[in-house]
């Protein structure tokens, strides 16, 4: 086979050499991507962990006023996780619930900051616990309200006595009921509760006296008639 002519020879053109600094340029691109990603993540973390703002707290209050309670609760969970003053936040939002008559969620928050409450707030929480079937907590908040100077009215002492009686503090209940009746002897509910508490304590003669006092004011009081029959039976 004859040799090819020079212009018929096939030659392979060598690849172009990499531009100067090409490897370095790639490294800078990769480094820039990492830096941007890191800054982005840091920005995200900063956003997520930012302190709860006044605008957020006001928004929760507006949700409570609007009656969108589920959304308010969800926002409160997030706000508490980031708050620098959790007690202050609970106090403020608890009071917002209380102003709108939302005693349940108000109590859930305010009971955690009992030391910062005013006497009227303690009383509202005590009443909520009493009607909700938690007389132990009710008695605690009634006591706290009385310690802060809430007037010792006949009605308040009667409710306090109920909480004490239901929480198995019979002697304390008797004292509260008697003080209530000194202020207003016409309260047959208080006197009836006193009579029943005395009976539970085994102080039967005293119980009978109070039961007769109820029947003097309300001759057809069913509870008093039933208790009187029980007290008049064989011992």
Describe this structure in words.
- With 235 residues, the chain is mainly alpha-helical.
- The protein folds into two domains: 52-116; 126-235, Serine Threonine Protein Phosphatase 5, Tetratricopeptide repeat (Alpha Horseshoe), CATH 1.25.40.
- Helix content is 71%, strand content 0%.
- The protein is built from twelve helices and no strands.
- It has helices at 22-48, 54-66, 69-82, 86-99, 103-110, 119-131, 135-147, 154-166, 170-183, 188-200, 204-217, 222-232.
- Helix 2 runs antiparallel to helix 3 (69-82), helix 5 crosses helix 6 (119-131) and helix 6 (119-131) packs antiparallel against helix 7 (135-147).
- The longest helix has 27 residues, at 22-48.
- The radius of gyration is 38 Å and the shape is elongated.
In summary, what is this structure?
The protein has two domains: about 50-115; about 125-235, Serine Threonine Protein Phosphatase 5, Tetratricopeptide repeat. About 70% of the residues lie in helices and about 0% in strands.
Key structural traits:
12 helices, 2 domains, single chain, Serine Threonine Protein Phosphatase 5, Tetratricopeptide repeat, 235 residues, 71% helix, elongated
């Amino acid at each position: 086979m004859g040799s090819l002519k020079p212009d018929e020879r096939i030659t392979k053109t060598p690849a172009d050499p990499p531009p100067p600094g090409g490897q370095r340029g790639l490294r800078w691109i990769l480094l820039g991507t990492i830096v941007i990603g890191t800054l982005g993540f840091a920005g995200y973390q900063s956003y997520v962990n930012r302190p709860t703002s006044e605008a957020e707290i006001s928004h929760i209050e507006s949700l409570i006023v609007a009656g969108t309670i589920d959304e308010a609760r969800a926002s409160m969970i997030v706000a508490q996780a980031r708050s620098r003053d959790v007690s202050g936040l609970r106090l403020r939002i608890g009071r917002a619930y209380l102003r709108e008559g939302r005693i349940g969620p108000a109590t859930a928050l305010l009971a955690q900051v009992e030391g910062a409450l005013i006497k009227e707030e303690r009383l509202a929480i005590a009443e909520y616990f009493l009607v909700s079937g938690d007389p132990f907590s009710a008695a605690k908040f009634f006591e706290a309200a009385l310690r802060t100077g809430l007037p010792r009215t006949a009605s308040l002492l009667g409710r306090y006595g109920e909480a004490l009686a239901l929480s198995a503090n019979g002697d304390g209940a008797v004292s509260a009921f008697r003080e209530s009746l000194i202020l207003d002897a016409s309260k047959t509910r208080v006197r009836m509760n006193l009579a029943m508490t005395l009976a539970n304590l085994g102080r039967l003669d005293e119980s009978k006296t109070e039961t007769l006092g109820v029947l003097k004011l309300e001759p057809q009081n069913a509870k008093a008639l039933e208790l009187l029959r029980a007290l008049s039976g064989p011992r």
